[in-house]
Amino acid sequence: MALLDGFDLDLLVETEGPLPPWRVVRILSQASAALVEAHGLNLIHRDIKPANIILTERSDEPDIVKVVDFGLVKLLGGGSNEPMATQANAITGTPLYLAPESITTPDAVDARADIYALGAVGFFLLTGQHVFEGSTVVEVCSKHLLEPPVAPSARSARPIPEPLDQLILACLAKAPGDRPASAAALKQALERIAEQTPHDGLAAKDWWRERSPALRARRNPLDAAPQGISMTVDLLGRAVRRS
């Protein structure tokens, strides 16, 4: 098992605030590449969120992304006896990043639920805010189902390129068919945006040298906020399990 000497995106935004678009594009592009690989193996992550995306570095390259914690993974096309298929008739994931279909038809979600969640991660990275917030899980889920999201640029003090703004909104479409068709399509769209918003490698290296020691010192897996906790809700028995 590889040692990831970095920190998750929750801690990064908590400490540094919203990230510049050039950095967000690089992070989302690498995360979408990880989903391309997982979806190519017929695996849905189902719990894409900032806490499950680790930012690290190599000696020659900053801002390297690793997607972790496939504990809620679902095998696409798996039957009820599949060992990797999680329980049907259950809402599984983190409420702040749940696609609408994960709430209404959780046993029928496909890879586009991960795309929705990654769009919500991008919104969080750009604005420092969640797409939808509420005082209860029910309120948050209701907003995912019924309330249209605002563009990240409407909540950001920093200018956001229009193509990135619109791509995030496309990922957050209520209907799966209105989102990018696949993680590969999302990755390609991000690569096109990166041509106009290139990653600033020198600034990233300076950031890692100056700021990463403080974040590494703050790492604590017990610091996760309550609303960031993953949960499984049994829709038949109404039982709730948190992880």
Describe the structure.
With 243 residues, the protein is an alpha+beta fold. The chain has a single domain, classed as Transferase(Phosphotransferase), domain 1, CATH 1.10.510.10. It contains eight helices and eight strands. It has helices at residues 9-16, 21-40, 100-104, 112-127, 137-146, 162-171, 183-196, 201-218; strands spanning 7-8, 43-44, 53-58, 61-67, 74-75, 90-93, 231-234, 240-242. The protein has a three-stranded antiparallel sheet. A three-stranded antiparallel sheet has the order 6-7-8. Strands 2-5 form a two-stranded antiparallel ribbon. Strand 3 (53-58) and strand 4 form a beta hairpin. Helix 2 packs antiparallel against helix 4, helix 2 (21-40) packs antiparallel against helix 7 (183-196) and helix 4 packs across helix 6 (162-171). Mean pLDDT is 86; it is low at 79-89, 222-227 and 235-240.
Order of helices and strands: EHHEEEEEHHHHHHEE
Cα radius of gyration in angstroms: 17 Å
Query: What value does the average pLDDT take?
Result: 86
CATH superfamily: Transferase(Phosphotransferase) domain 1
The number of strands is 8
Structural class: alpha+beta
* Mass-distribution shape: globular
Put simply, the count of helices is 8
Largest sheet: 3 strands, antiparallel
**What would the CATH topology be?**
Transferase(Phosphotransferase), domain 1
What fraction, in percent, of the residue positions are helical? 40-55%
CA-CA gap between termini: 21 Å
